[in-house]
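Self-study notes.
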Amino acid sequence: MNQTKEYYLGDGLYASDDGWQVILRAPRAPDGDHFVALESDVLDNFFLWLEKTRSLKITVQKIVT
């Protein structure tokens, strides 16, 4: 997997991006890590759900590096 550097979100959860999907990783000893991979459509649906359930307005801004 061609992952970028992981970003610590807090509460034992890490995020990275492999260019296709967002990868969430939760380290769990001794059984190994748990992973969830969110493709673009699923990530969009997650943002919509957050907006609805948390009364938020989420905007996306592309960061040029």
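Second protein, same conventions, sequence then structure:
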Amino acid sequence: MADNGTRDARTKRILNLGCGERKLPGALNLDASSRTSPDIVHDLDRHPWPLSDDSFDEVHAYDVLEHLKDVIGFMEELHRVCAPEATVHLTVPHFSSANAWRDPTHRRSFAHDSVRYFEEQHPLAFYSTARFEILCSRVEFVKTPLNRLVARLANRWPGPYENRWAWIFPAWFLYWQLRPVKRVTGSSE
């Protein structure tokens, strides 16, 4: 540990959920398919995950949530395995993307505010005990000159974009960077 109580880059504990063929060097790579040769084979819809509480400083889950039956259970398990001050990176197809519907293993798609249900102040936060702070939220587009402009507008005004323009200028995916909100108990100075 560094002097300030945080882990330095050499000791950061990294988890890569639903790794598939995209393994992260230095991470614990987990996937439901043994054919991808992950470090751990586990179905993320089975709870609890075979991981200890508060054990990861960084978690990646790229293109995972859309495959799961239980998004709330996933978020609760994610919260459980994250250390305080952990950083979580999530991507999912945007509901307007053809990729959201093309893959027969996808169970759902997402909108810009889908993870806001896990924020402390959300009016429907009572559906889960897991709480996250949203550090970054982006609507991503296929890179074209027109989409660069659309991306600027969609990320500045995501609600109006999704309500009116998403079917004319479809997005590609959503990216969120989250931090678990954990209550620290019994701390001694």
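Instructor comment on the second fold: The radius of gyration is 17 Å.
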